[in-house]
Amino acid sequence: MHSIEEQFEKQLDQALESNGLTPLPEDRAALLKAFTTGREQAALVFSVAEARYEEPDLIFSASLS
User: Fold this and answer.
1) What is the dihedral of CA 61, 37, 18, 11, to 10 degrees?
2) CA-to-CA distance for 24 and 21, rounded, in angstroms?
3) What highest taxon heads this organism's lineage (predicted)?
4) Cα diameter, the chain
5) In angstroms, rounded to a whole number, what is the distance separating the alpha carbons of residues 5 and 11?
6) Beta carbons of 28 and 55 less than 8 angstroms apart
7) How does 2-38 read in b/e, with b if 16+ C-beta sit within 10 Å?
8) Which residues neighbour 12 within 8 Å (Cβ) at sequence distance 6 or greater?
9) Mapped to the 3 state alphabet, what secondary structure does the chain carry?
């Protein structure tokens, strides 16, 4: 089974190829990094939301200070 990153990389390559685009290696790397960073940010948002659900008073009091 392929990781999400590998699936995204394959889809990215297919999309670029179908549009006749051949990005420079550094541009392709930047696109892949943006995807990874987006996933990390989503994980952070999820963990904060999860903490807010489990300890709403703690998050609320921290946001007031």
Assistant:
1) -90
2) 10
3) Bacteria
4) 53
5) 10
6) no
7) eeeeeebbeeeeeeeeeeeeeeeeeebeeeeeebeee
8) 28, 31, 32, 35
9) CCCHHHHHHHHHHHHHHHCCCCCCHHHHHHHHHHHHHHHHHHHHHHHHHHHHHHCHHHHHHHHHC
**AA identity, residue 26:** E
Residue 12 tokens read as: 């990215």
Contacts with 8 (C-beta within 8 Å, 6 or more apart), sequence order: 32, 35
pTM here? 0.46
- Span 26-35, pLDDT tens digits: 888 888 888 7
Residue 20 identity = G
